[in-house]
Amino acid sequence: MNVSQEEYDRMHKIYLKRNPTMSMHTFPVGVKILRGEGVRLEVRLVLKEAALRPVKVTLRMLVRSNGTLRLMVGRSQSVALALLAPYGPRWADIDLTPHMHQTYNQTFLLLAECQHCIHAGHQDPLLEPVLTVLSEHSRQKRSIDANTACEKDNHRKRCCRVPLEIVFKDVGFNFIIAPYKFDAGYCQGRCPPRFNVASHHALLQGLLWKIDHSLVPRPCCAPHVLQDLDFLHLDENDPSKLKVTTWTNMTVLECGCS
Length: 258
Description:
Elements: H1 5-18, E1 22-27, E2 30-33, E3 38-46, E4 53-63, E5 67-73, E6 77-83, E7 90-95, E8 107-115, E9 117-118, E10 130-136, E11 160-162, E12 165-167, E13 176-178, E14 181-183, E15 186-188, H2 200-211, E16 221-235, E17 238-257
Antiparallel strand pairs: 1-10, 2-3, 3-8, 4-7, 4-9, 4-10, 5-6, 5-8, 11-15, 12-14, 13-16, 16-17
């Protein structure tokens, strides 16, 4: 991805306006010039679980040519990444989210040494390395219906909603910048007559099935109320730009028998 920091900030503002439960925090990155071509970066911050629930943490920097970035995340994790910029200087986005599992309520320390990275902040502040934290205040615009959410002691296994966390990168959707993940949910369970019917038609179908199984099939557990999802992604026509798109019916909020 080679999106400028100016474009990155501009489109995130548009995305966050459409998703008021999300917010973005930007943290300063200390930079020290190394001998030869390269920089050393240092970030120290405290993430409070009560105030900040991060969903994506990204380090952005300019890379002059092919090089290596060595990260020290926290106190023990070390990660080496190859950074490729075959067509001249370009922005590199390093996803730190997988390394953030145990950073709540303690100091988050990031040390990085990058060969062939550019530090031109004294000339243009928009070229400074940036650490961004995308966080959420609640998981859904509309609340998930507690009446159809599966309970731990659901021994009868009746129709209910099961949480399903999807991380876009895990399914190959690397072009999506935000959100990093979301709870899609799915429906499962039996549909006894009169149980959680989604329509009068489903009610009658269930009663007929009870009278004679050969007349009609039993109603099935399926999504009843769904919610759209806005996402920020690379523009397919211009990889240096971002755009916001809405996918309809992406999140299951309620399940019913239909």
